[in-house]
Amino acid sequence: MTTILVCRSEQLMVSDSKCTNGQVSFKTNKVKIVKKHVIGAAGDCTATVVFMREYPKLKTKIKDKVEFEGVALTPEGIITYDRLMNAMCVDEDYYATGSGAVAALAVIEYQKAAGLPVDPVAAVEAVCAVDESSGGPV
Question: What is the DSSP string of 5-71?
């Protein structure tokens, strides 16, 4: 799938760049800027293309039951979207999506607990080392 890590206080979104479509893997940009929003998507290729193309006027609802999550970092905060393009606000400073989401958030929590500087890029790089569905460069 992928790993996307968002930090509201730093207005930063970091992602891996590995995309798998069937038996083929390639590098792609999973994050883009639309006006003053940074957006990213994880999961099904068709749903991802629809989200990235239509944002912020999301009209197309993906009827198939596929794995997908879109995320937007706006000046107001973090918003997550499901395959039906329903939006939900996230009231946390850090949020992650994709197959490496839990691992990325665990690295952030470890950095904080150890008194280390929080480094979202290093967190996603660490995930890329252990999650077969995520890959660099970050």
Answer: EEETTTTEEEE--EEEETTEEEE---EEEETTEEEEEEE-HHHHHHHHHHTTS------S---EEEE
Residue 116 one-letter amino acid: L
Neighbours of 138 (CB within 10 A): 19
Q: Report the alpha-carbon distance of residue 92 to residue 94 in Å, rounded.
A: 5
Strands 68-74 and 31-34: unpaired
Give the pair of three-digit tokens for residue 126. 């660490």
* Interval 63-83 mean pLDDT: 94
DSSP state of 130: H
Tell me the pLDDT of the chain averaged across its residues: 95
Band (62; pLDDT cuts 50, 70, 90): confident
**Is there a contact between 39 and 71 (Cβ–Cβ < 8 Å)?**
yes
Tell me the HSE value of 133 on the side-chain side, using a 13 A CA sphere: 15
Q: Could you tell me the pTM of the whole model?
A: 0.94
